[in-house]
Write a structure and sequence with these properties.
Length: 223
């Protein structure tokens, strides 16, 4: 029986909660499709998007990897959404959707910061075929445990939980900023999508957090 590889490109930012919910739904859909089509496999690739470019401008892209500035997540999001009241309504809906998808989002505790450095680390993980595992670990750390994942220390702490991802090698990669141009080019290219998550599944494009059945239909079309 020949193998059929469905290629999936995901435009995402690590601080996007709907991206976390979305990948959980997509993975459930992938499992369902593989149950009925055992020869199918999936090749996932992640591309960078900057959800809060103002945070990057405020910190300067030249900031050292060890000293990436962060701000209170709840204060920043309340400012972005207009008020604490609006943010609270969003939180309740989001947490319900996350729970239904099987992931944990613990409110708006902790901090938020620019994500370019995290995306650079994800480029490295992609070169090692560990990108999805690393992205999931980052989502869990940020949304589930309210960890600071924006500087060198935070990124390396999460990377240490990913099997066969070399922490020392990643430290060197981040220090030399080898992934900076790749990330900046991806962010520039992906501005057209307008928001995240955005999926390209084979030749089909899917925008936003979809349910499992929708993903199943698109995956089967892409086979």
């Amino acid at each position: 029986m020949s193998s059929n590889v469905v290629r999936i490109s995901i435009v995402s930012d690590v601080v996007c909660p709907w991206c976390y919910v979305g990948i959980a739904q997509l993975q459930k859909a992938m499992s369902k499709v593989q149950q009925s089509h055992p020869s199918v496999s999936f090749d996932l690739r992640w591309q960078a998007f900057e959800l809060n470019p103002d945070l990057d401008k405020a910190s300067s892209t030249s900031a050292a990897p060890e000293t990436v500035p962060v701000v209170s997540k709840v204060d920043y999001l309340a400012w972005k959404f207009g008020s604490i009241e609006v943010l609270e309504k969003t939180r309740k809906f989001l947490e319900q959707r996350a729970q239904a998808a099987g992931v944990q989002i613990n409110g708006y505790g902790g901090v938020i910061g620019p994500t370019k450095l995290v995306h650079e680390a994800l480029v490295y993980a992609g070169e090692k075929e560990k990108q999805t595992e690393f992205m999931l670990a980052l989502f869990e750390a940020y949304f589930g445990r309210s960890e600071n994942i924006f500087d060198m220390a935070g990124i390396l702490k999460v990377s240490a939980t990913v099997d066969r991802l070399d922490v020392a090698e990643l430290r060197e990669y981040i220090s030399t900023r080898n992934g900076r141009k790749i990330v900046e080019d991806e962010i520039k290219k992906n501005r057209y999508v307008g928001g995240v998550p955005h999926y390209t599944i084979g030749k089909y494009e899917v925008h936003g957090g979809q349910d499992v059945d929708t993903f199943v239909k698109v995956l089967e079309l892409a086979m």
